């Protein structure tokens, strides 16, 4: 007997397709409460959340509404934190979106900080983005016992006040010794060189540079005034959210936009009534604290460079009406957050999940080569 060929309509081919669709539908049902709940948090990835990435919902104003509400609450929180900074710093921030403070620490304190950072050797993590290597050593208990100048920095009222006011949260940031080593590996250009906004809501990053940063050494780049939510900026945010295809194939440039870190070309800035980007070439001991909703980037380096800084990062849920009450500001927790995050990512990778891009380095200093 000759076996009858199975056509495309036969059960042997239909059943796997049906089962796959059924599993996909079941997954969507199971995860829908999670996706809905994320709308009330700082979650920003259009790729990972199909509700957030829905073209139809964003046409109806989902993303624009989240942006407006987040900025309204941030302004209210900042009003409660105005006493933490000087009038000069507040006016500079309102104008530019960042505050720059040359000679931030007294000369003797800064010299002690640099000497202690150079002498510190211990575990670190590194990641590769494009052709650049980023190394981070967390400000945890082990480091701070050997870096008294570092602890003194964390207790500095101006450091604390600027980070809290610009971040619109009375909360302790995560702080690291960070090293940027440019042009160190073969790869695409560093994606941090593209102008972008970190998220749809205000957040804060701070850099106290321990090395001089020249014009062609990868300086901090910021578009002055781009932290403000104007009508044109809101319309641009809405247009990007509608244009993002959360499910499609994409190149690296679009990947980061789909993850919620919107990229923008310099040619678009004028249409948003924004000036050209400002490159902040600065000497060592300069502090910059910036709102990461503003468009920013890392400037290109003409040759392999080493940039070392004390780097702090703060991003709370943008929909909290209160400025304080942050459990992660408790010292016993604050000093452990970075290593807990890395350890959790290691466990997820070991269980077959997403790879932890932060690779271990043992017994290094911030000034070691990549």
Walkthrough of the structure:
The chain has helices at residues 11-38, 55-59, 62-81, 87-96, 107-119, 141-146, 148-154, 157-167, 231-243, 252-258, 266-269, 331-334, 337-350, and strands spanning 98-101, 122-129, 132-138, 174-181, 204-209, 220-222, 278-280, 287-291, 296-298, 306-314, 359-364. The chain has 370 residues and is an alpha+beta fold. It has one domain: Jelly Rolls (Sandwich). The longest helix is centred in the N-terminal third of the chain and has 28 residues, at 11-38. The protein is globular and about 60 Å long. It starts with 10 loop residues before the first helix and ends in a 6-residue tail after the last strand.
Provide a brief overview of the structure:
With 370 residues, the chain is of the alpha+beta class. It is built from 13 helices and eleven strands.
Low-confidence stretches: 246-252
What name does the CATH topology carry? Jelly Rolls
**Percent of sequence in beta strands:** 15-25%
CATH architecture label name = Sandwich
Radius of gyration: 23 Å
Relevant terms:
Jelly Rolls, 3-stranded antiparallel beta sheet, 13 helices
What is the secondary structure topology, with strand pairs?
Blueprint (H helix, E strand, L loop, with lengths): L10 H28 L16 H5 L2 H20 L5 H10 L1 E4 L5 H13 L2 E8 L2 E7 L2 H6 L1 H7 L2 H11 L6 E8 L22 E6 L10 E3 L8 H13 L8 H7 L7 H4 L8 E3 L6 E5 L4 E3 L7 E9 L16 H4 L2 H14 L8 E6 L6
Helix pairs in contact: 3-8, 3-9
């Amino acid at each position: 007997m000759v076996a009858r060929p199975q056509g495309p309509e036969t059960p042997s081919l239909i059943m796997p397709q049906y089962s796959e669709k059924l599993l996909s539908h079941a997954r969507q049902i199971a995860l829908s409460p999670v996706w809905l709940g994320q709308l009330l948090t700082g979650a920003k990835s259009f790729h990972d959340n199909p509700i957030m990435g829905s073209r139809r919902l964003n046409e109806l104003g989902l993303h624009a509404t989240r942006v407006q509400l987040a900025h309204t609450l941030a302004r209210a929180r900042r009003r409660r934190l105005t006493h933490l900074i000087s009038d000069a710093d507040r006016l500079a921030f309102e104008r530019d979106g960042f505050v720059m403070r040359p000679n931030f620490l007294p000369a003797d304190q800064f010299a002690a900080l640099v000497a202690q950072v150079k002498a510190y050797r211990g575990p670190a993590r590194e990641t590769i983005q494009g052709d650049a290597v980023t190394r981070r050593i967390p400000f945890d208990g082990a480091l701070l016992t050997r870096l008294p100048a570092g602890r003194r920095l964390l207790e500095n009222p101006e450091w604390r006040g600027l980070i809290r006011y610009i971040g619109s949260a009375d909360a302790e940031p995560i702080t690291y010794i960070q090293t940027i080593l440019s042009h160190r590996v073969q790869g695409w250009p560093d994606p941090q060189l593209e102008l972008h906004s970190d998220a749809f809501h205000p957040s804060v990053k701070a850099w106290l540079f321990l090395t001089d940063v020249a014009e062609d050494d990868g300086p901090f780049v910021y578009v002055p005034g781009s932290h403000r939510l104007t009508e044109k900026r809101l319309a641009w945010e809405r247009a990007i959210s509608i244009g993002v295809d959360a499910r499609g194939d994409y190149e690296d440039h679009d990947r980061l936009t789909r993850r919620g870190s919107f990229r923008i070309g310099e040619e678009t800035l004028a249409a948003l009534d924004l000036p050209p980007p400002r490159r902040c070439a600065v000497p060592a001991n300069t502090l910059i604290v910036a709102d990461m909703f503003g468009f920013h980037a890392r400037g290109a380096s003409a040759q392999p460079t080493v940039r070392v800084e004390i780097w702090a990062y703060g991003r709370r849920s943008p929909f909290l009406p209160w400025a304080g009450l942050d459990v992660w500001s408790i010292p016993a927790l604050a000093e452990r957050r970075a290593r807990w995050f890395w350890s959790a990512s290691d466990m997820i990778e070991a269980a077959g999940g997403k790879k932890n891009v932060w690779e271990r380095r043992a017994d290094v200093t911030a000034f070691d080569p990549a």
